[in-house]
């Protein structure tokens, strides 16, 4: 009788240790719903939704603090995709946060740029390369078209170039498209 109690105690202790280790080793980091919402958002990091970027907006949606219709770059398609994911009724895109614009990137007019670096400081995705008093350039593949650099430029040398999706550049649900 004592032997069977000892065997079951050792077995229970062993299984407890295995389950405890598995719980620590395979623990989900963060909320998977936030990751799913964030994957639908366009990743422009523009702040038009009143949050500092797409991830904070995704967290606000998941916690119920924000509506699903605050992202102009995602457009009505983004709102519809979020509604489908969350199993809620779709809403019209909230015009208070801006309007949906065609996909675009920015470029710098080299003849006008004075190298002030204000655009570098304003860019949330580090799409600019340059230094003080040196002409700045845009890394086209990194530019999300958030337009946060345009109002800070003191010499208006930043211009918009529309990106026309082609079969080789169109990737759904990803804001980064190659310069077409």
UniProtKB/TrEMBL annotation:
It comes from the Bacteria. [4Fe-4S] cluster 3 binds at residues 123, 143, 146, 149. [4Fe-4S] cluster 1 binds at residues 46, 49, 54, 71. Part of a membrane-bound complex that couples electron transfer with translocation of ions across the membrane. This is Ion-translocating oxidoreductase complex subunit B. Pfam families: Fer4_21, FeS. It comes from Candidatus Ruthia endofausta. Residues 29-88 form the 4Fe-4S domain. The complex is composed of six subunits: RnfA, RnfB, RnfC, RnfD, RnfE and RnfG. Its cofactor is [4Fe-4S] cluster. [4Fe-4S] cluster 2 binds at residues 113, 116, 119, 153. Its main location: membrane. Binds 3 [4Fe-4S] clusters.
